[in-house]
Amino acid sequence: MKKNKQWRVNIRYFRQRYGVIIALIIAILISIFLSVQLWRSPGQSMKQQKITNDTTQENVSGENLTSVYSISQLIFNQSDKELSVIDYRTLYSKIVDRVKEWDIAYKTSDVLKKTTYLNSLSQKNTIVMSFPDAVSGNVIQSIFGKRIKIAGNATINHVQISQDDSNKLFFYDDRHHKRYVYQVSNAPQTVQHLKPSKKTATVNFQWVGKHVMAATTTSVKLQSYSYLLDVDSTVSRLTKLFSDSGKREVNNGQEILTYSNGDNRRMAHNVTTGSINYDAYNVNHNANTLNQRQHEGYRWLVNLHQNSDNLYYFEERDQGQTLTYRLFVNGLPIFGQTSYGSVQIKQLPNKHARIGMSQYSLRVPLPTDQKNQINIEPMASAMADLESVGVSRNDIEQIAIGYRWQLDPDNQIVTLDPGWYFEQNHVWRSVTDQVKSEQGGH
Hints:
The chain is an alpha+beta fold.
């Protein structure tokens, strides 16, 4: 009893003498912890961006990277014709899920002449999946599985899978005219019995500039769409990355709000046009290859809340120093939202990254009138239209069918009509607009 009483007295004495000090220490530790969490919030965490290696990049990016770096064409090379599937997303997912389970062994690689390259891509009884522009070998592994042994810095434009008993898998690199050949030894589920959907277009493979595309050889009718405009969500998410409320300026009749986080981050929001430029300085990116830059591009999309369900990779320049992403509808890219696309990421000198975005996006699709379809002429006709107004085929870098972004600001509705678009001097233009402009608008 005497010992217990003495023990209680000692505890009481300890609390009286040191209790305040202990409580103060605990409060300081909690404060430090909360400060660290605040420092690591989205506005500050981007300061810590540094890509160390491909494995780390993939772990950070996660599976969603494979949905951003997706294909833009899916072609069935049948015995008598090549058919491009119009709305290919579901079929593409089914093929990817099957290929992931295959045992695949690398056989060989070869550099082909341009005509031989086309002939190989046109092999009968095969399925060809084409990306809108080159993706890295590491992205290919992220999509189809690590069983595919390919260099992380390889550049791939097309994937080809045999539907016969040859059990071959091919990857194609347009830039170097290179073909990688693989043998499938075990496929729990094959693609032999897969067929194109009812909505297709007849195509053939052609060189356009430095790219191979599946060019339509007949007219095809495509649906027009309408969407409610999403105006506020992008801006509201981005402004949360900054502590200030923005500085208002008016230049040449345009209202611009500028936000900054010291010397490291700056954002200029053009309220008049809806364009947004986000500049990051002292970025610790160690991105020197297409592979590293495509991973970092996805990282920026996530950090700036630009990874919407219908945003996809569209184009790269200078080994990924410029990456462009566009909104897609029904498997086709949207043009006219801005001068460059939906999001454009540029790696500039002196650890400087610039991300261009739009305030506007698509929110809710409106009911579709099935009769509201537009007849799209074959690619040869679009090329002939351009040549008739002085645009040489040799000057065309790429050509594609896409949707025109047409905004009705009064009703907050975006109308999307299909048409041909071509790239010249790194700028995409409407074929129709180019012809009208050269003909004086008549």
